[in-house]
Structures are given as structure tokens and as C-alpha cells.
Amino acid sequence: MIGSGTLTKQIAGYLARTEFDALDAEALRTSSRSSRARDFRAAHWFTPRHAMNPLIILLLVLTFSYPEAATGADKLRIGYGAPSVTMSILWITKEGKLFEKNGLDVEVLYLESALVQRALIAGNVAFGEMTGSLMSAPKLQGADLVMVAGFLNHLQYRLVARPEIKSVAELKGKRVGVSRFGAGADRATRLLLSKLGLHPEKDVLLVQVGGAPTRLSALSANAIDAAIVDPPDHKKAQEAGMRVLANMEEMNIPFQHTGLVTSRAQLAKTPDIARRVIKSFVEGIHLASVNSEVAKKAFRKYMRLQQERELDDAYQVLRGFMQRKPYPTLDGFKAVFAELAEQIPAAKNADPKDFVDTRFLEELDRSGYIDGLYR
């Protein structure tokens, strides 16, 4: 029988092929403008074409059905969109066996970029770690999505470029790599370029490349000229001779980055499970703050980091943004809406309070449980 991991990869591959079958190599080497609307939709919605495809239905049924738990724990799946430190609270909570402590049998799934969003919309995962921008676009178009915890409430990306590019001004006419159009890194790239005085649609050529490791490889191969990466990946770029042109962390831009997202239907259907999921993540944050070895174990497993220096760097990045009480930021969502407003008119009048539900986090906070963890 085919394992769930293999089938998940098959789904990811099939979706990637079908979504971008109209984008040939030449289109990826040129400006994103001509295919922007199509790619925006593809990056933000689980389309009827995919939903109705028999192969997709079969793979989803096989992948997302499992035998009943022998332990009596409640089984659920939680997806994450990138092998990045920003997603690591999920891994640390898993490796620390805190889900089990709270009566949950959680399967952690890597669903790259927008795939985690689509799996959540389709009901194939109960929760997903993703950026506020990745969640907000389909939410603004009617999808049932809500953020229940916020792990990173500002942008940390570094803009790195090939060594021959010595200033931001020299990026004009150059190729800037992003993950997928509409994904979190793409949104952050557009925002950063605008802040630096460049028009993302006119002054540079945006090229879909993939996740941070792929963007770094593309930089080294001279396939692109610049890209943003999360720390500590920028250090790898510098070691390869690349230049850091901008540091978004120093710019201190409020922006809802990584958070835990689910649906209001899920919260209404299984509130007790949701409550225990939030409690597990809160305990995972505490564990990460007091036990670096569990955090490094998670980095080894999910990010494939092996060198002690890399592990130490990743841990310091994590400690730098962890919040004991992981509330999403309403101002951060306003910044997300401002960036989306040009493509989605509904963003102009969106209320960030409609995008968050922190009732279970507030329960833990009011009870004194979170403060008690640190005494």
C-alpha cells in the first residue's frame, strides 16, 4: 500500500503541474505582468477544476483517511507551508510530545506554499501554519479561514542579491525570484520593493522559483539576480558571495506573518480539540524557550540542519521572535490588506477582527496558565 507521505508528494506534484501548465519556461523568464491575474487566482484558490478531478479525489481519499486511533487520542493533521524557522513552533511542539500530553495524535504534513492553504480550505487538514497574506486572499473572497494564534508578527526577510549588484538601484531591470505568485514571500517581496522605491511590476522581473532553498540555488546558478530569504538562510547566501541589500527586520514593518489558521466550522465542530491544540502550542513556545536541544532536534529533522553553528543560528532567530502569548496582530493584518487591496477590492474595507479568533488563547491567558509556565 502506498504511504501517506508518498501520496502527499503525488498530490503536490500533480497540483503544481496542473496549476502552472500554461506557464512555459519563457514566461517564467519574463515579467509576471502578463500572467499575473491567472497566477494570482491559482495561488489563492482550490479551483473547481482540481476539486472535480477524479485523480485528485482518489489521492485525497487515500491520503487523508486513516485507521481509528488505538490510543484513544483525537487524531488530526496540521500542515505547514515552508521548512523555515518561522514555522518551527509546530515541529517543536510535536517533537516535545506536547500534543500527546494533551490527548492529541497529530500528523505533521509539509505542504509547500499555497498547498497548505488549499488543503485547509478543502478540509483535508484541520489546522495549517501559514502567513497572514496567504490566508487573507481567499478569506476576502469568501473562504472560511481564521487565525487562532500568531507566531511572527513582523517581517524578518533579507533581500540578497548577486555580488555584482551593489545597491538597490541596480536591481532595476533585474530578475527577482519569489516562491509562487500570491504566496507569502511574493507578497513580502512586493512590499519590500515598494518600500525601497522600486515598482514591483515595472522596475523588476518577478520570477516564480520556489522555496528559500531553491531561491538560493537559483541565485548561485545566476538564474535570478535577487530574492528574499528568512534568517538564518541569508548567512548561507553571504558565504556563497551574495550581498544583503536590505533587512526587513530592521525596518520593523508590522505585518502578520506566520500564524496558526483553521476554519470557524472546525472551531464550532470540535471546540475542545481546538482548545487543546492551542494549549499544546503555548506549551511548545515555553519548551522552546527553556530547552534548546528539543528545538535543535526539530531543526535537524524538518530543516535538515546538521552543523552546530547552523543550529545555534536558527535557535537564536527563533528566540528573537517568540511570543509567550501568541496573539495575532490586528495592525499586521491591516498591512496585509493594504498590500492586497490593488488585486482584491474587498481588502480596502476589511476588518482585521473578522480574521482572528483568539477565544481559546484568551482563556489560557485569563486563567494565568501561560504566566504560570514561566514562574
Can you characterise this structure?
It is a single chain. The chain has 375 residues and is of the alpha/beta class. It has 2 domains: 66-154 and 255-373, Periplasmic binding protein-like II (D-Maltodextrin-Binding Protein, domain 2, 3-Layer(aba) Sandwich), CATH 3.40.190; 155-251, Periplasmic binding protein-like II (D-Maltodextrin-Binding Protein, domain 2), CATH 3.40.190.10. The protein is built from 20 helices and 10 strands. The protein has helices at 4-19, 25-28, 36-44, 48-52, 54-63, 88-95, 98-101, 114-121, 132-140, 184-195, 212-220, 233-239, 248-251, 264-269, 271-290, 292-303, 308-321, 330-340, 359-367, 369-373; strands at residues 74-80, 104-110, 127-131, 146-150, 158-161, 175-178, 205-208, 226-229, 243-247, 258-262. The strands form 2 sheets. A 5-stranded mixed β-sheet has the order 2-1-3-10-4, sandwiched between helices. Strand 6, helix 10 and strand 7 (205-208) form a beta-alpha-beta unit. The longest helix has 20 residues, at 271-290. The N and C termini lie far apart (49 Å).
